[in-house]
Amino acid sequence: MISVDIEIKLKAYHGGQLLKVKRQFVSGSVTKIWGPSGSGKTTLLKMIAGLSSPRKGKIIADEITWFDHEQPINLSPQKRHIGFVFQNYALFPNMTVQQHLEYASNDTGWIKRLLQLGQLGNFTTHKPDHLSGGQQQRLAILRALATKPKLLLMDEPFSALDSKMKTLLMEELKPLIKQLGATTIIVSHNLQELEIFDGEVMDFEGLV
Ligand SMILES: Nc1ncnc2c1ncn2[C@@H]1O[C@H](COP(=O)(O)OP(=O)(O)OP(=O)(O)O)[C@@H](O)[C@H]1O
């Protein structure tokens, strides 16, 4: 269970609005986050991942405090053991597909399975600038899964994929996430595309 009770002062949204999020994410569940552009969806993911700090509040994961502004405690992203798919992929320009995955995992069987999942088996020696946008996005997803994270945060993870690839990938991703037992939070502008995942919707409209 991840318990989030935080306040974030959004820097530019209508001149500095306060975003309050109080929510529990049940272990192994999928939550789909939807809301207007600029409402703070990415910012929330970054706060959970430890890449930015809330103004106030607490984040507790399985009884371990990740963030508490009073104590103060702020665990580094490395200690939170999260898989993060960034909206802009954040790939390493000098690493090949294979190196991206080996950087995150030394489980060769798992890497092979991920390459199959993302249909990147024929591109293992390619660096990001020799991959299409959709291939880059798939690599970002595979890299996030490589560490077998218990918490998977995905920010618009399917936006660059054609509908056939999207469906295929999601169909394979669903059992894989279940196998990992990963608590999953997916930000998407298109809730319909996430239909395959059973889970609650968290609506950001009206939160700020
Ligand atoms: N670390 C931060 N602390 C406070 N505010 C931030 C931080 N990072 C970004 N912001 C501001 O928060 C607002 C929301 O940005 P964010 O990227 O979270 O929106 P979003 O809902 O993900 O939007 P989109 O759907 O367009 O991706 C922006 O105005 C941005 O400037």
Written overview of the protein:
The chain has 208 residues and is of the alpha/beta class. The protein has one domain (2-203): Rossmann fold, CATH 3.40.50.300. Helix content is 30%, strand content 25%. It contains six helices and ten strands. The protein has a five-stranded antiparallel β-sheet with strand order 2-1-4-5-6, with helices on one face. Strands 7-8-9-3-10 form a five-stranded parallel β-sheet, sandwiched between helices. Helix 6 (163-180) links the parallel strand 8 (151-155) and strand 9. Helix 3 packs parallel to helix 5. It is globular and about 50 Å long. 33% of the residues are buried. The mean pLDDT is 94.
Mean pLDDT: 94
CATH architecture, by name, is: 3-Layer(aba) Sandwich
CATH topology: Rossmann fold
Class from helix and strand fractions: alpha/beta
Shape category:
globular
Q: What's the alpha carbon Rg, rounded to whole Å?
A: 17 Å
Q: Largest sheet at a glance?
A: 5 strands, antiparallel
Order of the strands making up the biggest sheet = 2-1-4-5-6
Strand content: 25-35%
Associated small molecules: adenosine-5'-triphosphate
Number of domains: 1
How many β strands by DSSP? 10
Q: In which range does the helix fraction lie?
A: 25-40%
| CATH C-level name | Alpha Beta
Q: Helix and strand succession? A: EEEHEEEHEHHHEHEE
Count of DSSP H/I helices: 6
Q: What distance separates the N and C termini? A: 25 Å
Looking at CATH, the homologous superfamily is P-loop containing nucleotide triphosphate hydrolases
Low-pLDDT windows of residues: none
